[in-house]
Design goal:
Elements (H helix, E strand, L loop, with lengths): L1 E3 L6 H13 L5 E3 L6 H9 L5 E9 L13 H12 L3 E8 L3 E8 L4 E7 L7 E6 L2 E4 L4
Parallel strand pairs: 1-2, 3-6
Antiparallel strand pairs: 3-7, 4-5, 5-6, 7-8
């Protein structure tokens, strides 16, 4: 079963959904479609820029009363970041203002990835990935 982003508005709800799905032997998948942008996939699956050294991504991060923090639209840019950086994020630092979130993740191998979420101005999606063989724009929609 595909559940559009976010899978739920709270961790309690996410756990309940996955528990019920497991009991009924139903596979569950939730994702932002942005992880499938051409250049994101080229970095992730085709070694387009060599080893990824870091990445900066951005998306709207409008807030919705029933979804905490970045669960609503911020999840799009966060998912692009993790799609190109991979697993292993160990620490996260967040800087918040009324109009912007900037989140910095440090991966276990020392790489840094950033996400900028905006709540004012024009809303675009995209970023840049930096690699041992060059850099690449992750595109904007």
């Amino acid at each position: 079963m595909f559940i559009d982003k976010p899978v739920a508005a709270s961790l309690t709800d996410v756990v309940a959904i996955y528990k019920e799905a497991s009991a009924k032997n139903v596979p569950v998948f939730s994702s932002s479609s942005l992880r499938y942008m051409k250049n994101v996939q080229a970095v992730r699956n085709e070694n387009k820029i060599g080893r990824v050294l870091g990445a900066d991504t951005f998306s709207p991060a409008t807030l919705e009363p029933h979804h905490p923090d970045l669960f609503w639209y911020g999840i799009h840019g966060v998912e692009v970041l993790f799609a190109v950086m991979g697993t292993g994020c160990e620490t996260v630092t967040r800087f918040y203002t009324e109009e912007t979130d900037v989140v910095v993740g440090k991966w276990k191998d020392g790489r840094l990835g950033t996400f900028r979420g905006t709540r004012s101005g024009k809303h675009d999606y995209g970023g840049t990935a930096y690699g041992t063989e060059g850099d690449i724009s992750l595109g904007t929609l």
